[in-house]
Amino acid sequence: MSTSPATFYERVDKAIGNPALQAAVRNATSRMSSGRDAAIAAFPEMDVMRDHARAIRAHTIARLDHYLREFEASVQRRGGHVHWAATSEEAVAIVVDIARQHGVKTVVKGKSMVSEEIELNPGLALAGVEVLETDLGEYIVQLDDDHPSHIVMPIIHKSRHDVARLFRAKLQATDDEVADAPRMAALARRVLRKGFLQADMGISGGNFGVAATGSVCITTNEGNGRMTTSLPRVHVALMGIERIVPTLDDLGVMLQVLGRSATGQKLTVYSNVMSGPRRHDRNGGREGESDGPEHFHVVLVDNGRSAIVGSELAEILYCIRCGACLNSCPVYQQIGGHAYGSIYPGPVGAVLMPALQGLHTWRDLPQASSLCGACREVCPVRIDIPRMLLELRDKTTELGLTPIWVTFGLTVFRQIATRPALFRRAQALASWATRRLATDGWIKSLPGHMARWSKKRDFPAFAPKTFQQLWEGRKR
Amino acid sequence: MTDSRDNVLAAVARGVRVGSLPPGASLEHPGAPPPLIRPSDREGMIASFTRELEKLMGTVHRVADDAQAQTRVLELLDARGARRVLAWDDEWLRPAGLGQVLRTAGVVTESCWLPQEGADRTARLKALDDVVVGITGAHGALADTGSVVVVSGPGRGRIASLLPPVHVAVIGADQLSPTLAAFLSANPGVADVGSNVVAITGPSRTGDIEGTLVLGVHGPGDLHVIVIG
Fold first, then answer.
1. Cβ within 8 Å, pair A269-B218
2. Closest Cα partner for B180 from A290, A75, A255?
3. B199 Cβ neighbours under 8 A, 6+ residues apart
4. Strand, coil or helix: what is B198?
5. A276: which chain B residues are within 8 Å (Cβ-Cβ)?
């Protein structure tokens, strides 16, 4: 994992103290949200389609063992290989083995969040395999030794000036080559194209696996996903075990809600369905397919997922990684992806990370939400994220992981709130005190130990009269 | 890692068996997708296909017959000074005889065939690196989204619609389906036809740098669909 979870609040402080980062994240999330809203406004069937998409995901997870077996058999029938990885270490070892078995020296890689999760690139580097990220954003992340801050748009935390500086430093780019986004993309294209033409192996993620047909579907806009899976002689697809859909028809439904929710597109530019390796004729002659990978491997990664099946958090396995909950989240909009310190940030990450790796490591993430429900509103498969955040907060308390000052504060509050006379006096005292501390009705900073709390929030002063006092006055 | 297979499947089966049914789940498959009501007449579909693809900065050329289609392809090549194309084999191109027409006009038509072995494969790909135009047919097209559905196969290489910066797909108006769902239900065995089925919806694009739209990052940035009829 990228950063120590113990320093969550320090990372948040750093993020909200960086106005350039905040502006970049706000621009990107509002752009993506309005793109999504426009696409959905233009699609009157979105609501029934979302209901259907949810039903497909829920049904698949309810029978996941059945569909995983069917998927495996279908891939094998087409001449592909299926590998099972219980942990991230196993997943990395499997990919390294495949690379060795085929004498692979260089790899081109498409965008895959699972590969970030299992920390594949360092593992391949250790084995002496050179990896080139080919999604433009991921390539920039790799060049800068950085981490993606969004699951769909990896570099929304970077400005074009940041990218220009990076290309000058790492690619010896000229001023002209980094003058604007199109020229920087063109420069990256030239570099990456060399990689595509000579790579021995391509590694992709998998948006969906189709059980009935043994297909892996990836969606990309740039076309790097097609290059990665078509040109090299070996293709390895990495997928979480939950990414299965039963049929091609079901895949069609998922693709329609995915593109609209992620980027406001009716369909992503390349909806790419791969069913096994290149199909040769009996003699390996020209009667067979012209091109495509000679070897097709699918790595199914568990890494904590099977334990979520059947739990109260199972719904998070419906997720199709569109990123809409990140874009709509008022917390993500303020702090960006890196502050979460997790591979999967935002509302989905706040449930998924503790679900995959435990609350002891990720206890702060379920707190990083105002429970406003925006994530549930936009989710294409209607995942009830706020419900699960509350479940996780409950569990945090049960495990005794709640910070002492929260427990203490709540105990004091309970003592006061259950005694009406005391409560009235406390109200009067709070009203007097908060109004003294406020400027223009808002408390912006508090003295002493309370300063840490007020640093991140403004709090309104209490009204001069309580509701009960106003009510009494009204009756007269 | 045979143990892992059994362990993972056992863990999943345990969760499925002992856990409560996930919210909204049914043990029965939810069935066919909800129907989308879209134009299904030829003119309605062509209009929708054209509007959608042009919104994405692709270009649609509607031509009356095969002869016009051939002329249009030659015009597109001339405008780009393209003397070499990466094309599907003649038997898969529409109109029939397009490959011969191109060669007669002095255009070299490169085959999509890739050697299996690594070094030969790389050499062949490098030799194709500077080809400017790829020419393909399609398995179908989607009016609702402006997509062409391209399926790989013998003589129908993936690279023709991928490697060159310009992709020209020639289709018949009779190949249009109203929606993706309609296409899939009319072609239930499409994954058996080729190892790669791709719905191409507009030119290659990225918004990774500050959301600025850039076309032609890795795939073709210039997409032309010629619709005959």
1. no
2. A255
3. A255, A267, A270, A271, B142, B145, B147, B148, B149, B180
4. strand
5. 195
Residue of B23, B206, B208 with shortest CB distance to A384 = B23
Q: How far apart are CA B36 and CA A431, in angstroms?
A: 58
Beta-carbon contacts below 8 Å between A and B: 312
Q: Residue B28 falls within a domain, yes or no?
A: no
What's the number of domains chain B is made of? 1
How do residues A124-144 score in pLDDT, each as one tens digit? 999 999 999 999 999 999 999
Asked if residue B104 belongs to a domain, the reply is yes
Q: Which of B16, B218, B223, B225 is best to mutate for the A interface (most A CBs within 10 A)?
A: B218
The answer to whether position B11 is within a domain reads no
Q: Is B146 a member of any domain?
A: yes
Q: Name the residue ranges covered by the structural domains of chain A.
A: 1-42+323-402, 64-301, 404-475
Which of these, B69, B60, B64, B75, lies nearest to B98 by C-alpha position? B69
Residue B50's CATH number: 3.40.50.10420
d(CA A382, CA A367): 21
pLDDT lower than 70: segments of chain B: 1
Domain interval for residue B66: 45-228
Beta-carbon count within 10 A of A441 CB: 11
Q: Which residues make Cβ contacts (< 8 Å) with residue B226, sequence separation at least 6?
A: B61, B62, B63, B69, B72, B73, B168, B169, B170, B171
Residues pairing with B166 in the sheet = B133, B222
pLDDT tens digit sequence for B55-101:
999 999 999 999 999 999 999 999 999 999 999 999 999 999 999 99
> What distance in Å separates residue A278's CA from the closest CA in chain B?
6
Give the C-alpha separation, A319 to A423, whole Å.
45
What percent of chain A is modeled with pLDDT above 70? Answer: 98
Q: A64-301: what fold?
A: Rossmann fold (3.40.50)
Share of chain B above pLDDT 70, in %: 99
**Cα A410–chain centre separation:** 33
pLDDT of residue A5: 45
| H or E stretch at A230 | helix A224-230
B208 to chain A: closest CA residue: A137
Please state the ipTM of this predicted complex.
0.97
For A282-300, the pLDDT digits (tens) are: 876 778 999 999 999 999 9
Q: Which residue has the tokens 């009356």?
A: B64
Residue in B19, B22, B191 nearest the CB of A215: B191
